[in-house]
Records
---
Amino acid sequence: MRLIQYGNVTVVEPRVKAWGTIGHPIQAIVRLADLILSVDSSNLFGDLGGFNVLHAWIVDTEDEIILTEILKVMGISAQNNPICSRMMVKLGLVETLSSLLKSNNTNILLRVMSPLSSLSNMDPEATLRFINCGGLKKLLAISISENIQIKEEVLYLLDSLATEAKVDGIGTLILEHPGYSRLLEESLKHDEVRIRRIAIAVLLSLTEGGKEPIDRIKCSNIPAALGSLYLNAQDDDEKEDSAILIETIRGTLEKGID
């Protein structure tokens, strides 16, 4: 085993050529995804240096199928598992995964946002690292996609970053990008109800940051879009969620909407 340096991160030298002698490498990774479904197995995999090896393979491989399967393993390992998330963050996986947001491959984009969301939910440092490596700018660049799944994953990742205001000023940092205000405004007007619902969740998370992000929301076109959504809500849940968000933005405890 030989250690090599990728920027500030030391990883195990990829042995992709050697692994190529495995008869069915894809099936091996798929099987791994099944094995680490339990928290204990996932933690053991991390203790054995498994994330280090997968990290090296992500950096090295040009095989789209292998890469997407590895990203699936990363997402499973990080989900609701603070121990594995901490290991992955310390290895520099947030920076490596964020670099994949520049990909032109839809499958890779869809896969990579899942572990990024899970890491952001589990570890505040993951959110900070994502911001510091330019993740917000990269995410905004792909948010213009017409692909509904990509738009959903972008909104889910935004929600993970903003939830509970894990990083001071995260709401303001997001809303400083005019593109995010436009994205949320357009999402509130979207034909797909699930896009509208996720956008409401993101905005509620952003308001957890206090007065400054709320003021930025007030100064955008989001309140108008939200008011229109409230008036034209397709069901009681959408109407109620809209009302809660409107009240939060207004900074009142009103029970109704004028």
Note: The radius of gyration is 20 Å.
---
Amino acid sequence: MMMRQTRASTMAARAVAASVTPSPKKKQKVHHASAAPSSPQVKQRTLFPIEEDNNNTITREEIQNLIRSHIPNASDDMSTETLDGWCLVDALSHCMQASNGILKDLIKEHGPPKCYLKYFETGKTNTRGGCEDGYQSFRSLCRIVAGQQLAGSAANTIWGRFLEVVGASKNDTTNLTPQAILSIVRDNDIEGDLRAPSGLSNAKCRCIIALSEAFEGGELSDDILTSASDEEVSLKLNNVKGIGPWSVDMFLLFECPLVTSR
């Protein structure tokens, strides 16, 4: 009897299940490559277009005369080709005509970049140093340290005050030497006679003292920094506490531009 009930109930359950209509499966959308919308054409735009304007036209002869006017005793047949093989006349011609001649008057007033003028005048491939007493690199590094993490106006103010402490000025930095800094360190109160009057932070003051000691001891000099590669300069300067990648880059970029690539 139990077996019959079980079989009967099983058969009934199958009958009920068979009568239930299964829910339809959702059809998955098939994306065909051909159905994808085509991307719109983007018109290329020149970053610094050269406008066709007769007022901006300048001849190669005019640019050559401009270059020669900034180089003492320049000959008429002086080459304006850099060691990398490109011509400074072509570069200035493009810059003076691009973007409707926005740089034309500026280039005429100030002339070509000094690093190239120095190369055409002396034949040297870099312009590091440049001061007869051998401390131009020291002065440049002091200026960079004084301006670390400061806005331009604040950096200029502190730089001027610092120069006054050592008896120098922005127009004449001759008195800013490692010996001048170290004499204050040896004979006077660093806080009262150097840091506070100049407005330098403690870290910047210690960094400039460390630079002075490095130049005084011979670890750094104009000769060393002018003859070394960028990698060697970076390694030597990073050994001075307070000199980091940013300061090294500023020194290499603005104080030591190379006329030719390595």
Note: Residues 2-19 form the longest helix (18 residues).
---
Amino acid sequence: AELIGQTPSTFDLFAFEDRFPTMYSESRNTVVKQEAAKYNRMIQALQYQLPLFRRAVKGFVVMTEDLESVGKGLFFNVVPEAVDFFNLWFDKGHPINFWVSGLFFPQAFFTAVMQNFARSNKYAIDRIDFDVLVKDNWALDGADIPEAPPSGVYMWGMFLEGCRWCEQSHFLVPSNPKQLFVQFPVVWFKPELDWKGKKGVYPCPVYKVLSRKGTLSTTGHSTNFVRDMMIPAKEHPDHWIRAGVAAFLALKY
């Protein structure tokens, strides 16, 4: 009963429309409204499934995979954290840094960031790609970032598997013993025109969850793979490929 009472309320989508109107110069407005609508559907599903979950825990009904995922989401506090993130986004406007793990569809957000850069500079968006700058001088949650970047976006909340980031050498290095996952520092995704890449990097794949598999959705994007992220590394990329190095937005399957 306590969990049911603590279930977050749905977002007021009309208020989101007023707060973030559709604008040519700010594509992120569209993304935040789409994300709020997706969270509404999830919250409504929670409100329906929580009473069933209580009964399943007591053994009155079968514990299905969907009900188990509800329990895991509550246990890891994923839903309340995400709701708090979007409430803050609504109250204070676009943040100076973004918790990428809280996004349902991060691919759309990255596209919106590139679109803002392309439109403000009158470039074709298909000529834009991201350079990646690891900002390991800031807190892992970006709490001490003083201001938004001049272009692009600061993102945090990713985890590395198969290696770790060294704040002294500013390169990827082997994992510490018995440490499967480490949180990655804040990353500046900096849009560049006609980006050709750079040497001394590992094209690290970024996934939403640990399973490293997904299907193509109707948007043409994977349900799991997000994008590659060029991370500075001294070794040849093959070294990190053999180590299975990847980044994840959430440590769940």
Note: Residues 28-57 form the longest helix (30 residues).
---
Amino acid sequence: MGKMASQQLYSAGLLNINVVPKIWSNLSEDVRTKLLALMRKLGLAFAAYLSDDQGRIVPGLLIPSLLPDRDATASERKLMSSNLPSTMLVLGLYMSQQLGEERELHVTKQRVRERCVLPMGFMEQLVGLLVVQAQTANSLPHISTMALTRYYARIVFGVEHELELFRARDARYITVIIHAAEAVGLAAQLQRCCQQLITTRFRSLLSALLVSVSEEHVVPLPALQAIGHGTSGAIRVGSLMLDHEYAKQHFHPLLTKQRDGVMYHAFFSY
């Protein structure tokens, strides 16, 4: 294995696919192919574009379990564009126990902290799925434009679309920041990847993408969008009256219509 490939694997969880035969030199090509397919199926590895020792873009693997076990540095958190609107959300996972009471359209952040769960490996595998989607959609599918650790990810979907995910070491939820003038598409992408992961590997879980509307409260994204689109009436969230005009003024990036026929789905259970 080349020096750069070795450094990428053990410091960043990245592996040039061309060095796999050297790592598994005692295995036949057929066995190596089957092992790689099994790793992808189980979420142990994801396809990614990397740089080789000569700086060329080559196919590779992102291995979530080998992502750096540290927080991101200030330089890693630096966005590609600093002029984009930012929208903060919370991705909450929970068991059969509901986050809110029946028909309740908002919950407190304290309840999220108490009732959500975050299984080991979930965020890393979610990041893997999102990187695959980003590199598929991005005309410059280079992983060096992103920042990936076990506690933080900055994923570039294009010059004007960036997604940040992070969690504290003892947190039971994932904080999400979407940097885009139109955040609906990235929110939908996040929901789809989350649901794919739940369906294939964490079947006992439910998920909710929640919008932070005050210091103490969050509202399910579908409920906020219904209010913002005028298909649902206003609700009181603590001392805040969340109505159509307030939603349009403060959460416009989450209310814009998606383009190219992209659909979003709600996975919040009441």
Note: The first strand starts at residue 14 and ends at 16.
